Structure formats: structure tokens, C-alpha cells
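Newbie here. two chains, one complex. Structure please?
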Amino acid sequence: MALPGEKGWATYFVVLTDARYAESMVNTLLLSLAVTAVTLVLGGAVGVYLARRRFAGRRLLLAVLTLPLSFPGVIVGFFVILLGGRQGLVPSIGASLGLSGLTFAYGLLGLFLAYVYFSLPRAIATYTAAAEAMDVQLEEAARALGASRLRITRDVWLPQLAPTAVATGAILFATAMGAFGTAFTLASQYEVVPITIYNEFTNYANFALAASLSIALGLVTWAVLFAARVTVGAAGTA
Amino acid sequence: MRATAQPPAPLLFAVTLVVALFMVVPILVSVMAGLVVNYSSGLKSGLTLRWLAQVWETYGDTVAASLLIAAGSVFATVVLGVPCAYMLARNRSRAARAFEEVLTLPVAVPGLATALALILVYGQMASFRQSFAFILVGHIVFTLPFMVRTVSAAFERGDLVALEEAARTLGASFPQRFLGVLVPAVFPAIVAGCLMVFTLSIGEFNLTWMLRTPLTRTLPVGLADSYASMRIEVGSAYTLVFLAVVLPALWALQTLAAAMQKRYGT
């Protein structure tokens, strides 16, 4: 066993002292927060719709929407290339309409969409289960008393779905922070920490730095989850 | 089915429609791209199985490797995880709580970090490093917490403690109690854990990409390789192979889990 330790403790602080790594960490954090927020809203809407509506093909739709749970991130990255890559669906439809420059797969938008694709099935599955367990009578009472759609959403649905949103959000956020396959397939210009770690390890054989960045990534993830737990706990008792 | 009238919800409907299209269209495009002669000219170029044959020739071995590793992970997490879950559910000591925290670490620590740690510790043992056992160990480290947490929650049910006491007063030995009373009682949780471990293992990439060697490849590793180095038709055909392998396996496991839930569930 050969642990690289020549540089000592300083290696642990590069993420703070080196602008490149700090930027990569901020990128990852902002992307993961945005993905978590958007997925929670979209997944919540779909989950409530699927739980409360009865229509032909509902079970099939739910099965199809939760199927990508088993897809590795690399497949999701490939899907985004099929949609917005050089030969992708959106750019070719755009080209036939005379629009150019619609290739989005390799930039921030592509990465964002891939992460959302990866997260949505998890959110939809848990929200649907939670929304099916919601108390229908509360909603009917609110409606009978003349509450608007907005008020029903805010005062009836949100309080009942909040615990699910918090628990799911934590898992989605942690997964997004550590996601590697998606970004790897897209070879994105927007560098996230897992890619930085991989490059340091494989291309530069910088084991100590790779290890310290992994620890920093874990710590940042944990700190955000902890902060969220404290905030929610405080709001819950208030 | 509910008989009450459903008030219209145009916004929810629109969001559901857009999300459904966003999720489904890439799957359909990928299936189509794997079966056409030329992706850029689309269906006009005709259908072919050529790309599937090429995938089978180049990456066929990854299918068996992934299925075996997933099965191995399921087996190992049951053998290691179920006794461990029992111990954690019954032992109230501080050490047990601390161990529980340690066990949940691989959930929060990114897969890359786990892989790095395994390589730094065992990388020098060449024959282990170059075998599929190395990837299997990585998958077990990654999936074990999921099995332990699922089964441990089931062991903590109050009525189980009473059942176990009853079996003991009737003179059942510990192996008899464990295998005859406790394991059957938490069987649905074990099956649910197996389903989760299998799904996680078969799709695992973050760890496996670091642990692999040119001779030890799994399905997701082969997929990444084909996306990076092959034509888009081959990558799509390979994705199709992945779906053809994973969907029946998951469907079978889910059916089994549902049957177990019906038979043993509360």
C-alpha cells in the first residue's frame, strides 16, 4: 500500500486555495442545486397528476417514466447527444427549418438536461406514491369552500408533499454531486468535480489530489444536506 | 376508480406531457438509430441487424460479466447484509450506532472516491486487481448499505421481537429462530433489497469505470467505450442490447417481489 503523503495537509486545502478547483466545486454545487430544484417541481407536478387522475394508459405511462431508474448515467448522456448532439434530433429539425446552432449537448444546457433526465424517474416514483397516500377529503373540502387552484396547491398539497420533497431532494442532490457517467459521456466543456477527480487520477496520476478532492466533494455534499435538514427542522417546529 | 368529477388541471397536464415526451423521445430515437442502416438518413435507409451483430461480436462478453457480477452482489449482500442488519436492529450500543453511520457512508461518498480508495489499498495485488473479483468487491461495498438499511428497518418491527421471544421460550435454538422465524418474517424486505442491489449493480458506472481493466469490462463500461469510439448506430444498438438484458431481468424480479409482498406482506 503506497499512500501519497509528501505534500501533507496542504493537499486537503487545494479546493480552497486553487482557483481552478474552487471554480469546479462552485460549478458542481450550482448545477446540482438547480437540477434538484427543477426536478422537484417537475417531478412533483407529474407525480400529483399521475396519482390523482385516472386515464387509459396511466399505469403504462408510470412504468415508462420510472423505467430509466435502471439506466446508468452514460446512457442518459448518450440520449442527450441523440437529442442535441452534432447529428442530434433538435439540430437536424432546426436545420430543415433553416435554423443553425441548435447543438446544445456539449455545453451547460446539455449537462443540465442530462442530470434532470437522470433525476426525474426517482422524483416521479416517490412523489406518485406520496400523492396517492394524500388525503383527498382535505382537497375536496378546500374546493367546496371555494379555494382557488393556487391556494389548494399552496395550502393543501405542499404541506402534505413537503416531507417527500425534502427526502427526495436530499437523494437527488447527493446523486447529482457525485454523478460521473453523464458528464463523462457528454465530454462537457463545463467541468464538474467528479470529472476533475477522474482527470487528476488517470491523466496526471495525482492520487493525493484526487483523494482530497473526493473528500472535499463529500464534505460539501454533506454540509448542504445538513444545512437543509436544520432549516427544514426549524421551519417544521416554527 | 373514483367516481367524483375531476376538475381540469391544464397546467399539470401540460407539464406531464412535456416531461413524458422528454423521457420517451430519446428512448425511441435510440431504438430507431440502432436498427437503421444509416442514422443521418433515418428510416429511409432501411432496417438492419448489422449493428446488433457488431455489438455482440465486440461487446458480447460484457453481458454475461454484468449479469454474473449483479448476481454475485445480490448473493454477497444477502449473506453479509442480513445478519448484519439483524445485529444492528437488536444491538442498542453506541458502537452499533457508529457502525450504522459508517455503513451509510458509501451512499453519500461519490462512487469515484470509493474506487480510488480500493485502488490505493489493493492496487498492488496484481492478480486481484486484474480479475472480475475486484469489480465485484467494489459493487458489494457500494450496494451493501442499501441491503442492510432495507432489511434492518424490517427487523425493527415490534411484533418480531415478541415472535422471537415466543420461539425462544418454546426452546428454539438461535439458528432455528433466525432461519425459521426471523428470515421468513422479513423476506419481503430481503427481496426488495435484492431488487435494489441488482438494479444498482447492473447499471453501476462511476466505480466500475475506475476499477475496470481492458479484460474486465461490464455493460455500462462497454457502453461508454462504444459511445466514445464507435458510430452512433453501434452505440444505439448497444443501448438496445442493454434494454433487452435489463428489462426482462427487472420485470422478473419485480414480479417476484410483488408475489412475495402478497404472500408474506402485512
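Moderator note: Residues 50 and 236 of chain A are 28 Å apart (CA to CA). Residues 19-52 of chain A form the longest helix (34 residues). Thread marked as resolved.
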